[in-house]
Amino acid sequence: MKINDKTTKLFNCRSGVAQGNNLSPTIVSAFINAIVKDIHDLGLEILAGDTSISLSYMQITSCS
Length: 64
Description:
The protein has 64 residues and is an alpha+beta fold. It has a domain at 22-64. The protein has one helix at residues 24-41; strands at 2-3, 6-7, 44-48, 53-57. The strands form 2 sheets. Strands 1-2 form a two-stranded antiparallel ribbon. A two-stranded antiparallel ribbon has the order 3-4. The chain is extended, with a radius of gyration of 16 Å. The model has no long low-confidence stretch (mean pLDDT 79).
């Protein structure tokens, strides 16, 4: 895993669904939807691409 310019040590992943498995898209979708809701509840915005995920603060403006 890489965060900013730092990379974690290698580790074994003992759970999950193999890439290419028919269940993979469904499981990832359910997981991501829950994570995105939690991130929005914290006042953050998430932008996910094919190889990266970015978080930023949401700018809240009021309309009078």
